[in-house]
Design brief:
Helices cover about 40% and strands about 30% of the residues. The protein has about 80 residues and is α/β, with parallel strands linked by helices. The protein has a four-stranded mixed beta sheet with strand order 2-1-3-4, with helices on both faces. The longest helix is centred in the last third of the chain and has 16 residues, at about 70-85. The two termini are about 15 Å apart. About 10% of the residues are buried.
């Protein structure tokens, strides 16, 4: 599972560095992204960087603090429960 914030329409430079420097292949990947509503190329970039893996599920949390932490927690818990089935 990968949890990440979206910045300027893609994932953060630290995530880019990690994905560039580490070969991740043959894994089941669950992506969680917190963002301010500007996902632009985030999913596309993740899919490209994680080729050779199965992207099982994606969760997009828009302004989780502004929109309510409890709501975000509920969404994450539901997402995890669904993923564990």
């Amino acid at each position: 599972m990968c949890g990440e914030t979206c910045r300027f329409g893609t994932y953060a430079p630290a995530v880019n560095a990690f994905l560039s420097e580490n070969q991740i292949k043959g894994k089941k990947i669950y992506l969680l992204v917190c963002n301010g509503g500007n996902m632009r190329n985030t999913w596309k970039n993740f899919h490209k960087a994680l080729e050779g893996n199965e992207i099982v599920s994606e969760l997009d949390l828009v302004y989780p603090i502004r929109n309510g932490i409890q709501d975000a927690k509920n969404k994450v818990n539901q997402w995890i429960k669904k993923a564990m089935k």
